[in-house]
Amino acid sequence: MTPPPRDFLKALGGEGLCLLLNDAEVPRNDWSNQYAALLLNRSIVAPPEAISRLATHLNSRDLTDLARQIDKKRERVRTKGPVKPKSKPVSGSSEQAILQVRRVVQIMQMFLGDGQFSDASGICRSVFRSQQERTFLRALSFRFPGLLALPNYPLDQIVALDRVDTINAKTLRYGRNCRLDAVLVIPDEGDPVAIFELDSRFHDVPENAGRDAMKNSLIAATGLPFFRLRAESPDSMTVDEWYALLSDQVLPHLDLGGRVRCRKAAYRLIPC
Fold first, then answer.
1. Is the pLDDT of residue 90 over 60?
2. Which residues are CB-contacts of 227 (< 8 A; sequence separation ≥ 6)?
3. Pairing relation of β-strands 192-199 and 179-185?
4. pLDDT digit string (tens) for 147-197?
5. Are 186 and 246 spatial neighbours (Cβ–Cβ below 8 Å)?
6. Beta strand spans in 71-206 (E)
7. How do the domains of the chain map onto residue ranges?
8. Which of 97, 110, 135, 171 has the highest count of CB atoms within 10 angstroms of its CB?
9. Predicted model pTM
10. Is the dihedral of CA 144, 148, 153, 154 positive or negative?
11. Helices 61-80 and 48-58, interaxial angle, to 10°?
12. Backbone angles phi, psi at 134, to 5 degrees
């Protein structure tokens, strides 16, 4: 595979600077300083207008001088005008038409990072906190198409914390701010059927283990099936692998039983 031209990479970096300045009224200082270093080292190229904005933000005289140099160079090119290429007339005609073609390239700045970086530039963010959660929820929806799979659901939405007799003040505070990785509920009715947690090596930390113990006690009070699933390689688990695990380890333990009830038919009647 042929590597991209050096000039293209320089222009790509400059386009990233333009996107940063356009998206944020006050760009982040750490990113601005990195772009300034790249510009001064001639590692990237950018329009003088963008460099001037960055120079104003960082109060950099070096960037201001660089913007002036580029602007003067561009002005000299304008003064000289386009160079007319020499061409031979085509046989059968006295003149040959010459078309000026301008190439327009649309580029995007991208860098390596976890899923949270993609939500850093705006207010809205994904309901998933990892690729593992996204893959698992797809498998959960495929394996139980008649039920509704909800990701990162608040625990106090399915557990009446004030009715748990054995709860203490610390566990109560935790329960009000706790979220569950995935919950299966009955559509329309909203009755929870099963709860899932995707464990990892971070759950082995004593602090996290204490939180897991509080979560276990709260869910145990509901009597709902609770599954803690832990993959050896979370990021490499596929939808098919999660599907097979749900079929073998989860399906045999699910029993909808009397939880299916129609509130629409008798909304004011309370089930016994």
1. no
2. 194, 195, 196, 197, 249, 250, 253
3. antiparallel
4. 999 999 999 998 888 888 878 888 888 889 999 999 999 888 888 999 999
5. no
6. 148-154, 179-185, 192-199
7. 1-111, 131-255
8. 135
9. 0.53
10. negative
11. 170
12. -65, -45
